[in-house]
Amino acid sequence: MSKFRKKKKGMPAVNTAALPDIVFMLLFFFMVTTTMRETELQVENPRLPSATEVKKLEHKSLVSTIYVGKAKDAKYGTSYNKIQLNDKIASADDVPAFIINERSKVPENQQPFMTTSIKADKESNVGTITDIRLKLRDVNALKISYSASKGDN
Amino acid sequence: MARRENPEINAGSMADIAFLLLIFFLVTTTMNVDSGISKKLSEKPPADYVPPIIKEKNIFEVNLNFRNELQVEGERMEIKDLKDAAIAFIDNGGGEGKIEEGVKTGPCTYCKGEKSESSSDHPNKAIISVLSDRGTEYGVYLKVQNELLRAYTELRNRLSKERYGISFDELEESYKDDRNNVALQKKVDDIKNSYPQIISDAEPTSSGN
Q: What stretches pass through the bilayer (chain A) (predicted)?
């Protein structure tokens, strides 16, 4: 009888050698598409308004971003009107210096194409935006983009 | 010494390491699509600047108060009706256009509006003035801007379809792909000049807050 007894055999191991390859492929995809946030957000991630007439921002290196929203740090209060420039909460009076600093990073022939993107929370006040706009006009940074997501309402 | 086969290197943990990295990138990635409503600010006027006198009927007044209520030409309005009101105003064509480089543009031949005496003369004279309060919510303000832009887009698309058989969006898109095409550029400029976007932002009031 023992002649016919089936040999005890474990399950053959599944060959997983290709698994790292697949994972690496995914990894490379994410590494390439990732843009690291260069500034730490000091305001809560602004809830952008949505609009239908949006245009994509081109030339990322020519875009300087101003965030407006509620400060994460409670010591700045709870209003949605805090302005963030670079890494810290600032006031509208600091905007010209910020723009001039951004401008110095860009070669001269590209400077007219520089755009200021205002990422403001829905509940911010128009007054804050106007203050920024007036300061931008003072330093001749005339191209602006009100950041909004595409969609109806 | 007995010949030995090369022992295989155990690569089982390689996947784990790759996964670790992968998850790190997955978490830190922000897939942000940067899009927005672009605007060009007007230049700072010189100190002795005297604003030109504009006829009342050529100004389309849009007011927003601190309660986010909309008032258009002195009457309350819902945001959803703003686009049509703006179109009616821009496209009215009740008179002569402005004089460009010494040449009169004459009456608007492509306008389909009512040609009413009390509304705008010509699209290139029609000014939309947005006055908002400092306390107005930014989201509402942007929605209003968006509606006004939509009015222009609709008019431009219509005219472009009439003249060139394709919508202005498509026209602009094909121009973007072919920057050196002079004929295409002429078409784009033609439509743009027929319905120029003149939206001005007045200094906000500060009644509320």
A: 12-32
ipTM: 0.73
| Helical pair A126-138 and A95-104, crossing angle rounded to 10 deg | 50
Chain-chain contact of B203 with A130 (C-beta, under 8 angstroms): yes
In chain A, the residue whose alpha carbon lies closest to the alpha carbon of B42 is: A142
Token pair belonging to A120? 């403001």
Under 8 Å between Cβ of B140 and B77: no
For residue B55, the 8-state DSSP code is -
User: Angle at the Cα of A137 (from A117 to B55), degrees rounded to 5?
Assistant: 110
Cα–Cα distance for residue pair B13/A19, rounded to 1 Å: 11
What's the average model confidence in pLDDT over A36-41?
70
Degrees (nearest 5) of the Cα angle A68, A72, A76? 80
Sign of the CA dihedral with A34 first, then A40, A43, and A44 last:
positive
Of A19, A30, A148, the CB nearest to B142: A148
Identify the closest residue of chain B to A59 by CA–CA distance: B34
CB-CB neighbours of A98 under 10 Å: 20
Q: Alpha-carbon distance A57 to A145, whole Å?
A: 8
The CA dihedral of B72, B77, B83, B89, to the nearest 10 degrees, is: -40
